[in-house]
Amino acid sequence: MTADNRVTISRPEDILGFIPHALGLWPKESLVAITLRGQTLGATLRVDLPTEGSERVLAEYSRRIGEYLEADHEADGALLAIFSDEGWDAGGAVPHGLPLLEALEPVLARTGLALRDAWFIGSEFWRSAFCADRECCPLPGRPVDQIRDSRLNAEMVFRGSSVRESPGLLGPGDQPVRDPEFMRAEAATLEELLRRWRSRKAFEEMLEVWTGVLDSGGPEEFDGEAAAFLRASLRVPAWRDAVVVLAAAGKSVACGGAEAFHFFGHEDDEGDGLVIPQGLCSPAPVAAKSTEATDVNALRYGDVLLGLYPETPDWSRVASLDRVLAMLSRHGGGEARAATLTIRGWIQWCRGSGSFAAELLSEADAEHRGYRLAELLGEVVKRGTVCGWAKSKSSAWRKFGGAAA
Q1: I want to staple 315 with a disulfide (CB 3.0 to 4.6 A). Which of 20, 83, 384, 403 is the partner?
Q2: Is the peptide bond before 310 cis (omega within 30 degrees of 0)?
Q3: Distance (Å, rounded) from C-alpha 219 to C-alpha 340?
Q4: 162-191: per-residue pLDDT in tens?
Q5: pLDDT tens across 123-133, in order?
Q6: Residues contacting 150, CB < 8 A, separation 6+
Q7: CA dist list (Å): 246 to 210, 219, 259
Q8: Nearest CA-CA partner of 341 in 174, 209, 186, 214
Q9: 165 three-state secondary structure
Q10: How many C-beta atoms surround the C-beta of residue 159 within 10 A?
Q11: CB–CB of 391/67 below 8 Å?
């Protein structure tokens, strides 16, 4: 589910042209629901169409859609669009989709959402689900090019938005370089980090390095030493998770969660600090026992991963993390690349894009079979769970309007 985006819409073609830009792709075999707050578009939700049309399946499917849309507490109406190529051969009003609409309408009404309009969209034609006027809605429908050529679609393109025909964030330029020498350097760095991973001093130095990288937006590219250090830090599971928490919730939560999980061994703080590559900002000296106030709560890490804490994440820093991970993933394959793809998948899920999240998590599993975090997040996405931040207008990511207020 994505946050609302202020655009001027005057025709159905504009609404339908807005949907692919809100999602980042042209939906296929999907139901797209948009909440309405008066005349204002609210949240946009895309889910796969049900695999069968039995009354029981449609009832359960509709109940789940109602729960998702109910999260938009300010909404009083909804629009529905069914993207499918089934049913157009008969040249009628795509009757196979009508039972789904009939199952959804009373569910929406019980949640206080009036079904304002609905449409069927195929590869070649689109039509209103309720219009029977042959002059207004000729059979089998109007050309889909009317949607692609709509005024709003042109406005979105002008804003810099693009639409993919199918999920596919990764292109040829995202393939990793296979450099044995670099991988040996990364392995050597990892060996050193694993000797120090329970040191509070090393942990906080690592977080300071990542803070500097994220807050600077990252360079256009990392040199080999810097990339090896950052990638190796993501191969230490406790540090990887801390980087995610750092980006979304800040250093105090990352440190507090680590302390609550008893990561630190005091005897490990006696050694020298980490060797930071020159290509990265060297952190300020960290005392063996930091005096900075921390949020010591073992539940925080899980809450951050599910989008339940904080109330609004640091979307700017999360976006910076996504850019940095994209660069690091190209430096080599293996476990480190799986970590970057997994975290990027989590970011897409937090932004409300389950399709893109599934693609990245699948790539992570293909890169490093059995990568546990990718498996766990993959199950969350498959169940259709919506990220907590994406459920609220105030905290959801805004594709066209920057971070949420």
Answers
A1: 403
A2: yes
A3: 17
A4: 666 555 667 777 888 889 999 999 999 999
A5: 888 988 888 77
A6: 11, 13, 14, 16, 17
A7: 9, 19, 14
A8: 174
A9: coil
A10: 12
A11: no
Cα separation of 247 and 232, whole Å?
18
Q: 251-260 and 200-215 are packed helices; what angle lies between their axes, rounded to 10 degrees?
A: 150
Give the side-chain half-sphere CA count within 13 A for 322.
19
**Gap between the Cα atoms of 289 and 106, Å rounded:** 59
Distance between CA 211 and CA 269 in Å, rounded? 21
Q: Provide mean pLDDT across the span 59-79.
A: 88
Residue where the block lists tokens 């690091």? 328
What span, in angstroms and rounded, lies between the C-alpha atoms of 362 and 113?
A: 35
d(CA 353, CA 243): 21
Those residues whose C-beta lies under 8 Å from the C-beta of residue 77, and which sit 6 or more positions away, are 35, 36, 113, 114, 115, 116
CA nearest neighbour of 36 among 108, 123, 97, 95: 108
Which segments of 24-175 does DSSP mark as H helices, in order?
Answer: 55-70, 98-110, 145-148, 151-158
Cα radius of gyration rounded to whole Å, the chain: 24
Helix (H) or strand (E) holding 315: helix 315-329
Q: Look up tokens 């805004």; give the residue.
A: 398
Length of the chain: 405
